[in-house]
Amino acid sequence: MDFSFTEEQLMLQDVARRIAQEKIAPSAEHHDRTGEFPLENIRLLGENGLMGIEVPAEYGGAGMDPIAYVLAMVEVAAGDAAHSTIMSVNNSLFCNGILTHGSEAQKQTYVRAIAEGEAIGAFALTEPQSGSDATAMRCRAVKQADGTFVINGKKSWITSGPVAKYIVLFAMTDPDQGARGITAFMIDTDKPGFHRGKTEPKLGIRASATCEIEFQDYVAAADDVVGKEGEGFKIAMGVLDAGRIGIASQAIGIARAAYEATLEYVRDRKAFGAAIGTFQMTQAKIADMKCKLDAALLLTLRAAWVKGQGKRFSNEAAIAKLTASEAAMWITHQAVQIHGGMGYSKEMPLERYFRDAKITEIYEGTSEIQRLVIARNETGLR
Ligand code: CAA
């Protein structure tokens, strides 16, 4: 087993770290406070190959592997979580799905636009009444005699929904078939019948715009089907496996930022005549933070490695996301506690890390869903 990274992986990590520290982190407080979408920074990430990391060069991407994706995501998330949410959806949920299941024309048009940073993508699965139970969707796509589909319905919690040019949509084409009656479509948000609804005011990742979207007699061409009719649910699940590696990496980045700020603080802050880092209760927290951080990173790299081998990685991705998101919540909680009043104050980023970490236990499959996936894989029972 070799724990070292390749030169290319380290180069991409370095590019991501530089942009994150020089451009993203300095404006993170502003973006969190105002909720302003960080379009300029997202373009910069795109120009540097970070919006299509695993996309081959022939479709405008960086042509790197899933390990490089993890390393870059961690750096961007350590700069600001909201930026890494947008990056994760573009890379994992949009590009990854179209690359695996899309037609050559879809790859050339849509993957290229997102990978080159010219447009922003989104992924629409969740509905107001169906989140974890994704097959309970009501959005309908009815096939017409000429092969087109007429789409009606609502989707909610759509990351980048307010700004996305293209969206991968999952809709019921055959409700009698349940999971096997769902089809994936490529949506162009400039076409008639597409509407954006209310924007969600959120606890954290406030600069990553999230909204409801609605389809009213939107007409999708036969060529807009991604993969085959009825394969949408499996496509969504496979794409979410990849997405979970991205969210695990995001959680690690947030946790690392909180951990590094804490290391600095415990060296400087004095109480009872000594640096608080010399107290055993602080030392125990630091040691536990580091163990959780390293465990989360190694499990996430393992999931990325299995993905890179072209094998099924659903279980590894669920284990990584569950471990990393719960580690991020615990680490940011302890970081706030160690900083005391300063941890609670908006003058320092600790409270933001704490708020940002929470979403990693919720989106792209809650911790409960990750446990369900892992237990089903381990026991073979359903
Ligand atoms: N890869 C490929 N196929 C898969 C799969 C995977 N990971 N998981 C399931 N499937 C297949 C199954 O093999 C099965 O196929 P057959 O019909 O051929 O047997 C089919 O899909 C149905 O599978 P299940 O019976 O297991 O489906 P289920 O209804 O029991 O659901 C679930 C399983 C794990 C609960 C799933 O619904 C799930 O993951 N739910 C969570 C959804 C989720 O993560 N939502 C996040 C929203 S998106 C988001 O947050 C994006 C954002 O903007 C940031």
TrEMBL record:
Its EC number is 1.3.8.11, 3.13.1.4. It comes from the Bacteria. One of its GO terms (molecular function) is flavin adenine dinucleotide binding. It comes from Stenotrophomonas maltophilia (Pseudomonas maltophilia). This is 3-sulfinopropanoyl-CoA desulfinase. It catalyses: 3-sulfinopropanoyl-CoA + H2O = propanoyl-CoA + sulfite + H(+). Its cofactor is FAD. Keywords: FAD, Flavoprotein, Oxidoreductase. Residues 230-377 form the Acyl-CoA dehydrogenase/oxidase C-terminal domain. Residues 6-118 form the Acyl-CoA dehydrogenase/oxidase N-terminal domain. The lineage of its organism: Bacteria, Pseudomonadati, Pseudomonadota, Gammaproteobacteria, Lysobacterales. PROSITE patterns: ACYL_COA_DH_1, ACYL_COA_DH_2.
